[in-house]
Amino acid sequence: MQNRMMPVLISGLLIAVAPLLADTASGMEAFKKADYATAFSQWKAAADKGDAEAEFDLGVLYAKGLGTSQNMQEAVRLYTASAQQGNVQAAFSLGQVYAKGWGVPRDDAEALRWFQAANTDNPDVSVNLGWMLVEGYGMAQDFGSAAYWYTKAAGRGHAEAQFQLAHLYAQGKGVQKDEAEAARWTRAAATQGLPAAQARLGWRFANGRGVPQDNGQAYFWLTLAARNGNKGADKLRASLAAGMAPGDVTKLDQSAQSWQESRKVLAHK
Asked: Which of 118, 155, 193, 246 is the most buried (most CB within 10 A)?
């Protein structure tokens, strides 16, 4: 009897969870379009059902007064509900809230407790925390802390974290400006196949930024970026090709194709 009921139970769970996912995703789409009223209604519907991600996102709206009146006490309540379900972004936000005394009495011990709860080894979460700190999403903008979280994920081989960390080094935000270090992290991400990083590395070689100027290397990386769908690489790539011998262009095109094919083989092993 138990085995026969299991598909019914699972099916029921899926039906129950699906609307929550829809509310949360719809809310984020609205938020990105600056339609905060819709984001508020979507996230509130999911948060009222206990969805941790929606609780955090709704807390952001209350904290910033977007789509609703600003209410830090309500933001803290929602952050806490979300963090207690294991949402790392909410835990980190609570750490900042207690460290700064926003909507609650300042409490360094409580701040440390929540920061420690957020100290995760999941690189995807670390990247998300870095983005939130750069954008000031749900917390104060803090490039130094963003660099910490990006470095944590970049060291574990996360390509997007490596690319974002390169941006911080190039701009000198949260870290000392260092073009060589920016180039190193850009190359790390490009080697993993991130198209934006490949385009940026090509630009660096073309302009000698953090790497020796090398039109051949520039064309090679821009070709890979273009092959992977980065439209921004096309203009500079065409400009470089116009100043090179046709035979050299053909060889570089072949090298880029071989490199990409070898990566596909490695990915399937």
From this structure: 118
